[in-house]
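User: For my dataset I need records formatted as: sequence, then structure tokens, nothing else. Please produce one.
Assistant:
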Amino acid sequence: MEHLTEALIENGEEDEVSWQEEILEQFESGLKKQPWTLIKAYKLKKLYQNWSKGIIYKDLLEDCLSIAIENLQKIIVNGHILHYTDEISEDELDRWNEFIADEYGHGRYTEQMDRFSNLLVKLTAAKTDEQKIIALDNVLGTAHGIGNVAGWFIQGGKKTLDEVSEWKEEKEHLTY
């Protein structure tokens, strides 16, 4: 997490300590579920359709990026809290697992913290619109490959990303 913190601060992002504090405050406040936002399927489809034509709507891209960044942060910190801190007592563990669970009961955390941290660093380091959309595509591609994790980023989850992937394959001129 130290490498992640340094890289994110260098890119102008908050560090994981403030994310951890925010998540723990939400949990300790008695919230039943961790607040979670998904990228709307129609927005992602519109983003890719326009990108294939060489058009990028900055507001649309930034909206999708901000959701992906926030969700990556939460996934990373959830795993960090669960595995590397003593913030959650044994007595609170069941409630914590319910708090971070998605609608299918899967905890939103990863054992692949380095992989997700690297995706987050690349996403926050991207400067040009093309770098941003490629970094976002890498995040979504990784989530797509893990199945239910896709549902942690995009409305419709894997099904939506299957549709987008099929559509992208038809458009050979997308830049990667």
